[in-house]
Amino acid sequence: MAARHEKQRLAWALTGSGHYLKECLDIIHTLTDVDLFLSKAAAEILKQYGYEHSVGRVFQDKTASSVPVGMFYKNEYHSVIIAPASSNTVAKMVCGISDNLVTNIYAQAGKCRVPSIVYACDTEPELDSDAPRENLVKVYPRRIDLENVTKLKTFEATTVVADMAGLKAAIHEQCLKTSSS
Length: 181
What we know:
This protein is of the alpha/beta class. 38% of the residues lie in helices and 22% in strands.
């Protein structure tokens, strides 16, 4: 593994889910030393919901080989957060598919022993979710979506959270670990 980078950063990846997206962006804006990674779907969703992002560095999914993942080999990141994580992203991570920027980040973080926190959207049989230009809509995750979340919970160096309180607690705990090492 590469030598520890002078000041490690937090990598936060957004997927194509609007589920608690505003709340995730609110958390991002309270953090320092965070880089934002956007899947192609995330870039679209941010526009659909009318949200802005104003953090340090922002990387978008514009290269076939997901060039920004090379920063994990340079030990630039202490943690990865994927929030909100769409059912598509969770399914790909469970199957080991890394065909876009976000799934590549997750795979490379694992290979570099960088811990990941995943806020999976489909965690209950019935949920209220944000929708563009709507308040909340009822969604009913499929059995396969719920099974994939359960499988992801068994992955090494991966913490899966089911709600905003869990996400905030996991981030706080990870930041405490990082600051004490």
